[in-house]
## 1
Amino acid sequence: MPQMPVIDPQAIENLRSLNPGDNDEFLRELTLIFLEDTPQRIVDLEESLAAADPSRFTRAAHSIKGSASNMGAMLLRDAAEKLEMHSRKEGLTAVVEMIGTIRQEFARAKAGLEEIIRSA
């Protein structure tokens, strides 16, 4: 099975096609929002875990999954989907390592998106 790219090039092209001819300004704006919002959603995961609030935790995981999918950050999306499904079925048991994976995949997605923006 081939390794999935950190950022799906087709997703980036789809975003570019939403506002063609803008010199990637729309893509830059969406990337900035994603890079600002996702760390807060990760904080939401940690805070809701500390507060034993599975509903808030699941919403944060779902939010990360959706925004990662929109930006083509497929490895982050997959990790967030696993975390969301785990929290729905198992609650908040054994999620600390999974949050670590979210952090790791976000860092990789951030680097990938920043490279795309730099070379645009």
## 2
Amino acid sequence: MTHHVILGAGPAGVIAAETIRKHAPTDHITLVGDEPEPPYSRMAIPYLLIGHIDEAGTYLRKTADHYERLRIERVQGQAIAVDASARTVRLDGERTLTYDRLLIATGSRPVRPPVPGIDLPGVHHCWTLADARAIMERARPGARVLQLGAGFIGCIIMEALQQRGVTLTIVEMGDRMVPRMMGPAAGGMIRDWCQAKGVSVHTSTRLEAIEPGAPLIARLSNGHALEADLVIIAAGVKPAIDFLEDSGIRCLQGVLTDEHMQTNVAGVFAAGDCAEAFDKVSGTTIVSAIQPNAAEQARVAAHNMVGRRAELRGVTQINVLDTLGLISTSFGNWQGVPGGDRVEQVDIEHRKVLSLCFDGEVMIGCNTVGWTDHVGALRGLVEGRIRLGKWKRELMREPTQFMAAYLDAAQGHAHWSAATDRYRR
């Protein structure tokens, strides 16, 4: 009987375990998670903070006996080493698991910046259910909250905190909000929007120290010293793969995989936020920490783990963000490529930004702020790598015509693809 060990009990780990069980009814499956709660979604934590759900509402599967019914053995522990030659995983507490197939789905860990005072009481990440409990205890209406980081995750946390009625200050090292998702005009507009909504935002600013006391004192690089009842660290995440050092499993930013989600070691696979997979838009391998990618990578890995050949079509680079009611999106390579064309339209009065990037006749990425209609067409143009022909020049002149370009150019692309398929047959 084949033993599948899955490291990580987030969405990727759970979907992989369920997929393996579906196609291998008699195999042994062990799901390893490092937290005491049932497997849950971190993306649901903001809804817990707002009060829209309780802790059980964050659980990935709602029936208490779900894993037992599927005969998925759950083990609480943290992987500290993998011996690929011996096919073993060592967990904390001196427990060792032997596997036939291994899936690394350990996800991400929050970045812990080297700030004096970061370990003080009242300073928390917002990553686990334990973090959420501590935050809810301090983030009462009127509480002074300082948050370090205004990236994608930071903005989601900010939304939840504002709805709790706190007095909120955001500190961001970058010159704009969501700097890894948005260009200067878009990120600057989101910053201005947040300030208009009553959030104090310090960009191009570092948190230099946190001093103890009640309240805490946060010292900023711009000379401000702010009192805070709670400090939240949302300074980004990185793949949780430190335990793979000296394992022989190849890692770059994440665990490097092929199109089958297999690593350089036979029988060892990776999926989710810790996996580095090929992105067809950029032509490189990337770590893309969004749940749709985690789910698809888990499904592909699981199929291959049970001998059912499957391939990953590519990594999706999409981000859709609601920041206090202002919608923004980022698709593909929004920063553009050397020598590529770029067009940007900024409408300050209506709080809108539309930025398109091209490589030749192909749109390779875009940013939007304030656009809610037809943004799926932008994603289709980017992910479909559709040759725009005459529409390239039209979009450079008037980028708001992207829907018409998609309907016309994509239809021609579909006819060409169908004709090519018939020729191949």
## 3
Amino acid sequence: MLEGEQEQIIQIIIEAIFEKKGQDVKLLELKDLTTIADYFVICSAESDMQVKAIADNIDDGLSKAGIKVWKKEGFKALSWVLIDLSDIVVHVFRNESRQFYNLERLWGDAPIKEIIDPLK
């Protein structure tokens, strides 16, 4: 995937997160560190219902844009939903799960960009 395409996909994901009031949105750039993915998009939610709403909204936004999701996990437990697009992986966490797994610390060598809701 081209970087321009990745940027457009990330923008769709971020807009979908903020539409459902996702919090503490961060973009980790992993492309120089691993082959797992080029980017992680990470956000937090306050409840299971909000995790589901954010994840569903991301899935819907990507689908409307004709972007195929490779894999989805966590829709039963709803403490951590993962949406895998191969080169971009989205992590929607309940606050407690995000603190526990602390992906930002785990990938501490990655450049991290905090994403601010443009409507706030």
## 4
Amino acid sequence: MKIRPLHDRVLLRRLEENTKTAGGIIIPDTAKEKPSEAIVEAVGEGARTEDGKLIPMNVKVGDKVLFSKWSGTEVKVNGEERLIIKESEILGIVEE
């Protein structure tokens, strides 16, 4: 199954957090927080203004982004969890 987000929505794959602390302590699954970093897997065509003009997306497929913990809607794609959020909920693009 393939998903193409509509309008100004983005499909994200969360990145896995480290399971060890800097001191070597292993963090159990029950104590882990959901990561707030993700890779963009698909983007919509962009938002439209009231007069119908297309506002292009700032993110593209493959970008590593930061987003707030409680944003978006979780969906399952081919048995794997994904997140669909509006582009405005993305806090920034990670540039390495």
